[in-house]
Amino acid sequence: MFDIEKRNRRMMGMGGRGGGMGGRGGGMGGGCYIYDENQRANDTLVTPDVTFRRGIYMNGSMTMDDGNTVTIWGFTDGGGGMSMGGPFPSPAMRVTQGQIVHTQLTVPMCCAHTIHHHGIEPGWESDGVGHISWDVSGTTYTYQWRPMHPGTYFYHCHTNTVLHAEMGMYGALIVDPPEGPGTLYSGGPTYDMEAFWVVDEIDSFWHTLNWTAGTCGSDVGLNDLNPDYFIITGVDGAQSAMNAPGIATTMQVGQKLLARYICAGYHPQRIHFGGLTGTIHISDGRVLPRPVQVTELRAHSGERYDVIFEPDTPGEYIITCEIRHWVSGEVLGTARTRITVT
Amino acid sequence: MKRRDFLRIGSAGLAGSLLGATGLLSWTPRANAATLERTFHVTEGFITQIDGTDVYFRGYSASPTGLDVPGEALIVQAGDTLRLTIVNTLNVATSFVIDGVVDSGPIGPGETRTVTFTVDQPGSYLYHDNLNAPHNRLLGLHGGLAVMPAGSSNELYPGSPTFVQQYFWLFHDIDPAWHDRLRRGLAPNTAYTPRYFTLNGLSGRPPGAPGSGDPSIDSMHDPRSALHGSIGDRALIRIMNAGLAAQSVHCHGNHMEWLTENGVIRPDVWEKDCLYLDGDKGALDVIYPFEVPPDSWPPARTGEYPMHLHSEMSQTAAGGYYMFGAITDIFFE
What we know:
The complex is a heterodimer. Chain A is mostly beta strands. Helix content of chain A is 2%, strand content 40%. Chain B has two domains: 3-29 and 36-154, Sandwich (Immunoglobulin-like), CATH 2.60.40.420; 166-332, Immunoglobulin-like, CATH 2.60.40. Chain B has helices at residues 11-19, 135-138, 176-183; strands at residues 7-9, 35-48, 54-61, 74-77, 81-88, 97-98, 102-103, 112-118, 123-128, 142-148, 165-174, 196-199, 227-229, 235-241, 247-251, 256-261, 264-272, 274-277, 283-288, 303-309, 327-332. In chain B, the strands form four sheets. Chain B has a six-stranded mixed sheet with strand order 12-11-14-19-16-17. In chain B, strands 1, 2, 3, 5 and 8 form a five-stranded mixed sheet that branches.
């Protein structure tokens, strides 16, 4: 248990005050609609089968193909609180269907964050939604969940989500069936190799904001996402993703590739498979009643598709994901990778 | 027209629109088709947003002094005849349209017009003013119509998966610069950049915010929007997008059973936690099953979860105010 008194020093819910509260976010002590004052321990915990420990970092960076860098926030492996930089995307969680899982999130007093296991449906106190339970600040909080449906998920911060997820606070979450990696679901197809296509867009301006920006009433432009970079699994989709391991794939005829596609951006996407036909077996962690064959598909924020490719013709296939403006449909940019079949 | 001539609707005025929802949960099938009558007063006014901005709207309103955005959600059954009387209180034309079903044509300033039509096909429909499309619709002239299969109380279409309760989620996005130009009879001259996002006309008021918990202000507690159920209380949700932005509808707690997309029955029912809702009159029908959240341990039978749009810009207001956008809560009771 922890001392609730210490958490009360940050005010939440500036009740009764109208517009224009505060400045442009305030850093320490400046959050307004941040819910860390009622934090308590999770009273549903039992002995877990597996535990993930996560700290946070808010001073990471990503270098783009044009040489520019943008600030990235994320989660670290190990739960040491605030780290100097860290991996992007955040370290993947990989679990087996039916395991009882603990995610221990440690956040220093600097700020508030949560972990929401997107697509996983746990009890409310393990769902990581600040306004319903609480934001985590100055303590370690344990989320408990028992994944029952194999497939592709992701986890992300659900505090000031519009900004924190855009800043990079997300990582892949894979649920394997009891057979383990290599089988999509019990009784379902097998695969020989995997690619992770976590497609996201970055608005460099948003990446200059403070962690509370948008929670105190001032206009920080969070209604309008104008991306200037388009990335796949933390790698610039302009060029670098064409050869990045785990994203780009080299395979042989006769092998089966599972692409785990996550729409991690906020604008809609359309992904083209460069002449290959893929078979969707699972979407959003649920096996489809009948698999669907596609040469392209569209997706919107938070959707996942598990697509198996069994190419029968050698060649280089360029996977192109267009990010389209949510109102105009205009293609804002593309991110590309490849499947090379020998 | 001077600004003071307009009706000004504060939070209290919005309560009137809730009254229109009382029919939702009391739907009972009838053996015979009926003729149903409603009067809509096309009114205008301002609705004050969380940051204090007054934004101009028009609505299909239940009374000449009200401003209902969206208009009352109507539930009828296949074969029914609707006699709608449209009273245009504006000094510009309006219309009443259901795509593929009825089109009143222009109804002039001050004119009253009765529109009579029969609905044959079960499903979910957006009614709207299609003049200067999409402008009049964006200003607030839209609402939802449900056509139940004849004699059925628990299906979307004959043979569909069944439900025990139903809701409408009408999403909208608002660019106040467009609303202001349109109020003055001018064409918008800026790129459409929505700045407010609503669900059934309201936006979120998170705990601690002014109006939080007030069902006439807070979309998280609006009984038209917030899902309430015990395990097994399967809820049909008729989702429509009156705005222009494509959205991703994301539910926590349970996946949604995806029945239709833009009025077309899906070949298979997929279970999804995020669904792509097209902008500009996109539509989905889903069932939120109110099952025990499958990944909970110990198994959870009660609890509170959000539904929010994952296209997260929609979760803001006036460029900030996270959680003051299109969001509601789901209560397992």
